[in-house]
Amino acid sequence: MAWVSVCLFTTLFFLHAFLTAALHMSHILHFRLKLQAHSRKTIPVYDCDRDGECSPPGSPQHMTASHLNDRLAGGLFSAGLLDRPPSSEHAKAAAAAAAVAQAHLNGTMQGMLNLQKLQNLATIQHASMPSSLSGLQGLAAGLSSLNSPLNLSVGAGAGNAAMTPGGGSAANAGGSASDGGAPPPIPSAQLPQLILASGQLMQGIQGAQLLIPTSQGIATQTILTIPVSQQVHSNEQLVQHLAALTNGTSNLNGPVAPPPAMLNRHLLSNGVQQLLSAVQPNMFGATSPHQSMPHAPVTPSASVSPRRMASASPPHSHHAATSRSLHSSPKASPPRATASSHHQYEKMPTTTATATSQSPHSPLYSASPSNGHVGSCGSQQMASVSQNQTSMHHSSTSRHSPIPPAMNRLSSQNGEITITKSHGPSPSHSSSTGSGSNHPSSQHNVPPMKLSPSSMHLSPTGTDNSTTDFLADSPNEPTINQATCNVVDGIDLDEIKEFAKAFKLRRLSLGLTQTQVGQALSVTEGPAYSQSAICSALAAQMYAAQFSTQQQAMFEKLDITPKSAQKIKPVLERWMKEAEESHWNRYKSGQNHLTDFIGVEPSKKRKRRTSFTPQALELLNAHFERNTHPSGTEITGLAHQLGYEREVIRIWFCNKRQALKNTVRMMSKGIV
Amino acid sequence: MAWVSVCLFTTLFFLHAFLTAALHMSHILHFRLKLQAHSRKTIPVYDCDRDGECSPPGSPQHMTASHLNDRLAGGLFSAGLLDRPPSSEHAKAAAAAAAVAQAHLNGTMQGMLNLQKLQNLATIQHASMPSSLSGLQGLAAGLSSLNSPLNLSVGAGAGNAAMTPGGGSAANAGGSASDGGAPPPIPSAQLPQLILASGQLMQGIQGAQLLIPTSQGIATQTILTIPVSQQVHSNEQLVQHLAALTNGTSNLNGPVAPPPAMLNRHLLSNGVQQLLSAVQPNMFGATSPHQSMPHAPVTPSASVSPRRMASASPPHSHHAATSRSLHSSPKASPPRATASSHHQYEKMPTTTATATSQSPHSPLYSASPSNGHVGSCGSQQMASVSQNQTSMHHSSTSRHSPIPPAMNRLSSQNGEITITKSHGPSPSHSSSTGSGSNHPSSQHNVPPMKLSPSSMHLSPTGTDNSTTDFLADSPNEPTINQATCNVVDGIDLDEIKEFAKAFKLRRLSLGLTQTQVGQALSVTEGPAYSQSAICSALAAQMYAAQFSTQQQAMFEKLDITPKSAQKIKPVLERWMKEAEESHWNRYKSGQNHLTDFIGVEPSKKRKRRTSFTPQALELLNAHFERNTHPSGTEITGLAHQLGYEREVIRIWFCNKRQALKNTVRMMSKGIV
DNA sequence: AGCATAAATAATAA
DNA sequence: TTATTATTTATGCT
Fold this sequence. Notes:
2 copies of one chain form a homodimer. In chain A, helix 12 (488-509) crosses helix 14 and helix 12 (488-509) packs parallel to helix 16 (562-588). In chain A, a hairpin with a 5-residue loop joins strand 1 (31-36) and strand 2. In chain A, the strands form 4 sheets. The first copy, chain A, has a 4-stranded antiparallel sheet, sandwiched between helices. Chain A has helices spanning 65-78, 90-93, 115-124, 132-145, 169-173, 306-311, 320-332, 387-392, 410-414, 453-456, 465-469, 488-509, 514-525, 531-546, 552-557, 562-588, 614-626, 632-642, 646-670; strands spanning 31-36, 42-48, 102-104, 152-155, 194-202, 205-213, 218-225, 247-249, 358-361, 418-421. By secondary structure, chain A is an alpha+beta fold. In chain A, 32% of the residues lie in helices and 8% in strands. The first copy, chain A, is built from 19 helices and 10 strands. The interface between A and B is large, with 137 and 203 residues. Chain A binds a DNA duplex through helix 19.
């Protein structure tokens, strides 16, 4: 009678190159943090268990977060991003956050940061973009924050100018920005920082985008709060997440002010996988020459929808002069993209089967083509920071103009954080800082894009050139050094991935759906950018992103070239800027309706929640019991019979099935 | 780059008396094991973290697996399940696994266990069902395995007969079954263990059902692989999962052999939510008197679909004599349900908001009406074990006949594990064994059901009576002690929930959809059990299960009475047995098409959407990367490897290519 | 204040 | 292209 069954529980960890590492997760997780320097080469940095004990992979040695920071800093330095070698002291590496609210996420944080609170905090602090090094410093600060118990505070050291690479690191190390540099005087912009947009960006990530008027212009700051245990269905696991913190600083007024620096910050929690990255899109080339940095959005026109903007063409394009100042500063900024420090965070593979692990990849001033990740084929150099000037001249008009100068990696352009998978296959790509004339090919084509000039205006920040700066590898018109780069694909993939990610974050931060974006774009960009096309393009990008190095071949085979994907990027990028700008404008005018600026009517509202009568429910349930998957006819019949819309009935069944499924799942889990 | 996939392989051993043990699996999980004696009282047994350190809940003390075993053994003993007190020595408690392949999953395991491999392994080992205590021993062994570093090997100590409570524990503790007891001689059943069915059961759960011929009969073992990080969208989180392992033992040949024991074991991981449940439907009353226990499925007819079976009526009903032996044995089996030890496993609340905690509730020979869970209203006693004889006489013909004898709780009848929520509201129902005349009302109507006798044949196991035994509370004909039971609802809910869960697991393990079941049932059971009706019944049960005590009111309001659900249970149970039997038969005949035995035409509706496991997707994507156009052979291989239908795999590639193509197209559109 | 679930969104199997 | 699923959001009610 005896039955013996043996239950085995196993945890399999799949390493992305099909290397599988088995981890044991104690309580919850184990997490393995890897920093990826330039190339796909990954540097395992951290491997901790819940107890907080961390050890580098394959090594008994334990590393603390600070160690990690040092390591990072070292990497940066070696990459030429830092002026001087990082000090080995933990705090040293960390610089005060510049122009960024420092998120302070408490490990034991009970909930998400309330966005309202964020806003309130935001009003208190202001960020000014000092200059060159601030970006790096911010980065450093971010890194240093790793040491902190994962606290994210929204106060923040605004005084970026004060931040020198070596300065104020200690403060940051503490993790709370509030104690950071003295808040810079709030210059021209008397507007308090406002929440441009807020809401859930992804899975469990709450995001808020703040507009921070500064003497330099308007800075946009994105704050993402990432619940540690987000997405985990089971209770006990500690989860990790990555949060991307996007910092966008736009110069609105100060033509004189130092250019806003870009900050990229990645915070990774040990016990909990978390990533915070901030990117600041400023300073990069404006796609269209006529783009100006709108002072504070001049036009208070309430609902400036992208479409409207498109039609209204250049209404906002004034202050072209400001752009100059902006550009100049980038040059000064020391943290060149030279060593595009790709901090890869190796996550545990999610359930998603895609074998590649995603590593947060914060392209900062990753201007230098030598960026490890970037398959820089050509000999072209692109000084990311300095690019601004160069890129400035890119004519937005020349669509496929081979203008390569001041090319930035996608990320920098977006000013968004993106997570890149480490691409297993493509080996090379070390931290060839600066001068690397690696892959000229696809990487550096600067397709100004078909930027409907109309859509260009309003871009408030110096970020304008960003679109132009992109190294879009256009298959056609292989401008510079493009022939020999076969690494390009890999690079493209990275870029695409990053872009897609960044775009998504930005889109979400505006509270827009893919559909909305598509619709708006179709209006703005014309038929070629029909909604579906855009959406699909986005999807494609996402999709493409999935394939990292390893799959490039297939990619080509299927004719799904990253190149084409790359082409659409500028358009999307441009639109996004406009949308964000518009958003800001509306804010100013007091009209803060997120959906207003979309070319879509607000009509879109959510349908009123239907409430079914008990009788209806009875019938529906009876039907459901008989058949959980009623045919269309059945549904129609029911709808008619009950007097509800067919769709309502259909959805009812969908939800009912879902509920059932959930129930079952729980039960099984529960099992008792 | 890191991929982490966690696969949990669990083998559940169902102790036939509904003993559930929650284990902590070191490596990865934390388990909390609770033994629940009769009533819902739960006894926390284990709580370990990956380090292998275990401590009883609320206690700093660490327990080793062996401790757990001891504890368990002690519990069992106290419950009267063991003949002698368990020794305190760690190894002692563990007995060699009986009749079960012991899965050995290495923590560093690279991928999921290949089902093929499992099958191969299965062929190596054989399980023989010794006698009474073997079940317990097996359990103990299983528990002991907890100590192992989470290795799951599919080799396994088969020599169950040799297993005495105190013997061979050490070997098991090692975690590898291969070194376990000497493989018992493979008696009559010369068939190697085979995979009855395999595939994705749910979300990311892969399941394989093995048939293990033993001298006692055929044992079915279900192995579920649960990716740790399943369902997690972010990479890094380690996830939890629950695995349910169903063990069904059917006596095929040995009329003389001791009756198969049912083992119910629940493994629950703390850190990772895992559930393993096994249910064994054997030994219970046959609904229709003419049912016999088919020897080894006599009819090798390839596709013995339920429908066919229905039409063919009693083709397989031979060996009626065997049933006798089966029944007799239950009596002899020491582990009577007396102390229907409910091992409740308390899991961490999952993210799902449902506030009720689910406690694993494994009804084993919960024959005694006194079972805490059961709201035994009437004074009727039902000796679950002994019931067989009694129930045997139930006439399947009398649908609503008030025949109460040998009533079993649903679970026991099913021999399935089900998860019950603890119902807050209904207080009473202590382990008022036997005599409690609590809620006579709805609880005890024994609607024999309209069991179309035709459908009865083929039920291989002695389980036949199970259907009859059910205490279906039919609103009409309140037979015995039924008036005063208001607790009934709570009880019913428990049962319903349990049943629904068990049924679903079994259904899924056969790869059947509700629709399929419904269709098959409509054929088998007649119009009253039309497809839709069945499905709805299932759904209703599921649905009903959702509501635990708190929501009963609503339940009633919606007219989703547990009672009605209860009525259909026996039918479903019976059908499931047949289906499983049929499955086996087909297997024997070499026709292993999962869908074959369903009485449903394939012509029907769109196939249910498959959901691939992350692991499967990983593999598929890897293949896709290499080759977007795999040959038929490749596809077949993949399908086999992954346990999906070939067509599903083929379609996956089609869709994948399509997606790629779309992506490309859009991108190109985009720009140019 | 929370819960149950209708509605909406995104992904993807068929 | 369609239909379903999987998730998420947020409404309406207690």
